[in-house]
Fold this sequence. Notes:
The chain is mainly beta. The protein has 1 helix and 30 strands. The chain has one helix at about 10, and strands spanning about 30-35, 40-45, 50-55, 60-65, 70-75, 80-85, 90-95, 100-105, 115-120, 125-130, 135-140, 145-150, 155-160, 165-170, 175-180, 185-190, 195-200, 205-210, 215-220, 220-225, 230-240, 245-255, 260-265, 275-280, 285-290, 300-305, 310-315, 325, 330-335, 340-345. A 4-stranded antiparallel beta sheet has the order 1-30-29-28, with no helix packed on it. Strands 2-3-4-5 form a 4-stranded antiparallel beta sheet, with no helix packed on it. Strand 28 (about 325) and strand 29 (about 330-335) form a beta hairpin. The longest helix has 4 residues, at about 10. The model is unreliable at about 1-10 (pLDDT under 50).
Amino acid sequence: MSKPVQPEGPVVAPVPAGALPVDPAKTHQIAEFKHDRPLTHCRVDLTGRFVFAGAEDLNVQRWDLQTGKKTTLTGHESWVRSMDFSPDGRWLYTAGWDGRVGVWPVDAADAKPARMIQTHSGACRWVRSSPDGSLLATCGNDLLVKIWNAPDGKLIAQMAGHKRHPYAVAFHPGGRQLVSEDLMGVIKVWSIPEGKELRTIDAGVMTGYDNKFAADMGGARDMAFDAAGNTVACAGITNVKNSFAGVQDPIVVLVDWKTAKVKQQLRAAKNFQGVAWGVRFHADGFIIGVGAKGSSPGAIWFWKPDQPAPFHTVSLKKGGRGLDIFPDARRLAVPHHDGFLRLYQMTAKSA
């Protein structure tokens, strides 16, 4: 059984809304949970009780923050790098590089999937639930973006148009459009459920050519909309020199949904190289990102949407490979390269 190393109250129970002020400058670690392999991704369930994390052992780990108990979810045959929840909070969806989406009861005791859906030939890189929960969207190494009926896993539509691997997909909060981004920073917008391509957006700053390995590098490592659907944020890399060695710069690109133009490029603090692995909009109007350079120390960045440089940076013990916000909007979950899931709080310790 994993136990918090700093067992403060927020680890086991949500902070009541409005009880404490949000202060990014006072962000501090409140707990950590150990796994024996590097973690690849994480999500916090809609109640704030469970945190799920993919790992390089090909499994998904579920930590119960009320008890500290860790449960291993087995079923995938490769890494899981994307997860989402049904809007009612009952189901977890996992996208595996084995080409499948797993469907799991969030609080099940047996840790077995209710269903595994064969979605793509090659890796299934991303999965997202529609705002009403009726649909799932995926993308994969077969260059396709697909829409599925969530209750039974049947294919509804598939969209061809990306010339390179699409890395991430996201439903617009309005539920009638879908966005995807590929290796070359090409963003496409699709209608739902017809699967018709509506427009293409150029985010080519999020890609580069690695001369050492003679390969293109880029694509969205994470994608998120603001609550109103006015802006979509895409996290990844830019200024590629030697991507395999981490010699590149993290970047979060903000795209204006109405104009279909890149309106801001959010950069890391000076001298940080690596990948921006996660991005989230906070209800208080700022943006949070997390980054890593392999097993080196990582960082959490806090930006104002109209300023390219972070107004605050938190150094991490090891690289952060994802990011999620708890329902109380005061705590963060970050999976790390060293196998630790660490929790952080954006309020003062003395508050």
